Amino acid sequence: MLLVELEGDSHLGRPFGNGPLGYAATELERFAGGGRLRARHLTAREAMREYLDAGGINRIMERLPRTGLVDLVTSAAPGLADLVLLGKIRQLEQRGEADLIVVDAPASGHAVGFLMAPRGLARTAASGPVRHQADLALELLADETRCQVALVTLPEEGPVSEVIETGFTLEDEVGVRLGPLVVNGCWAPVDGLAEAVERSPARPRGAGAASLAAARFRLERLASQAEQTARLAQELPLPQVRLPFLFTPGVDRAGLDRLAAALAVVPAVPAAEAVV
Predict the structure, then answer these.
(1) 184 membership: H or E segment, kind and range
(2) 241-260: per-residue pLDDT in tens?
């Protein structure tokens, strides 16, 4: 498997004890039987440098740090930087770099523009290398055997509304296949908590008051979470993979293993029937 980060700061290597990832692939873990997990951090600037270098523009490449040609080229047309990144991802896929390539794409607002870049450039470029790369990217996005998008949200009203809108936009305007929805930060129910709250004194004092407030807060959170995941299932009927809320300041290896175990379980029942 190959993990790919796009732009921004690099964080994927931290749970494995690595620092920030670079443009070249870094091996994070090797498994019994020969499998391995690698990761890399892609930027439009480095992808464009590689693209120009592959085209044999060696003399220009030597002057890039001084002239800023890469920045000029990627800003020449809206969406060109995104197309370059998609082209690099497509290249990794075609070369068979891994059995599965997982791309940590931008958040919803940028993700739509990122995935719509090839369509926009295909409309404006009648021919030439830009049109060719746009067509290849559109073929990748439209082929569900090669590419699917797994949207990630929180079980809260704002994020759920945003992911529903994003899902329909991606299906209608990009034509990409949507995979299971990942609902992050789900709180687990506590057996007997509601009954304990009902039996509690009307006005507890000290630590009892704090415990009761925490219990009520958790019950309210669980009720809201159930409401929002049900709304998500109704308005965007896709299987939901629910990841637990980690009560830690960051994701360590133990937390990563918990998330990985949850990701491996895709519900076979409709999302609307899943139990929070």
Answers:
(1) strand 181-186
(2) 999 999 988 888 889 999 99
Q: Do 122 and 135 touch, CB atoms closer than 8 A?
A: yes
Residue whose token pair is 């497509």: 90
Question: Would you tell me how many other CB atoms lie within 10 Å of the CB of residue 24?
Answer: 9
Helix (H, G, I), strand (E, B) or coil at 270: coil
pTM of this structure: 0.82
pLDDT at 72: 53
Answer yes or no: are the C-beta atoms of 44 and 84 closer than 8 Å. Answer: yes
Burial of 170 (0-12, 13-18, 19+ CB in 10 A): buried
pLDDT of residue 113: 87
Pairing assessment for the beta strands 26-30 and 101-104 based on DSSP bridges: unpaired
Contact in structure between 135 and 83 (CB atoms under 8 Å): no
Domain ranges, ordered by start, for the chain = 1-146
Q: How many CB atoms lie within 10 A of CB 89?
A: 22
Inter-residue contact 171 to 165 (CB < 8 Å):
no
Please, where are the H alpha helices in 20-172? 44-54, 58-67, 69-74, 80-94, 108-124, 128-142, 157-169
Q: At what angle do helices 108-124 and 80-94 cross, to 10 degrees?
A: 90
CATH fold of 1-146 reads Rossmann fold (3.40.50)
Are 143 and 173 within 8 A, CB to CB?
no
Pairwise CA distance, residues 253 & 14, whole Å? 9
| Residue 272 confidence (pLDDT) above 60 | no
Average pLDDT, the chain: 84
Q: Which residue has the tokens 């807060």?
A: 217
